[in-house]
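>> received
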Amino acid sequence: MQPLAGSENYFEHDADIGIIGRGENLEVCFADAAKAVFSLMVNLSSVRPREIVTFEFEEADVELALVIWLNLLIAKAAEHHMVFCDFRLHRKGALWKAIVSGEKWQANMDRGIEVKGATLTMLSVKNDHHRWEARCVVDV
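>> returned
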């Protein structure tokens, strides 16, 4: 698997990988960042949204919210022995509510890179001309 070649959702960073999410609002942007993370782990086109997992968290700082969101997704996937393919996030003030879906890991799924977690390295969340972009480095 070579996710960096020709992809606008990744950037080079030493031994780790930088991920980028984009969207017309913050929630879509964070969902795009989550897809970038899980695309490192598996070809998402082979994953079906068979089971739903919900959770919420509180964080007013949008940059820290990105790292919390990604790390909670990685933790919930490990807890449920799942890989997620669909990411929905709703925010009201500092409260973030997540609805994600995917399926249990299958033997026939080609496993990619193990992502250990999102870091504060090169963390950035910004709005430029009504287009959001979120980025950080993930530990692989």
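>> The beta strands are 10-13, 16-23, 51-58, 82-92, 95-104, 117-118, 124-127, 132-139.
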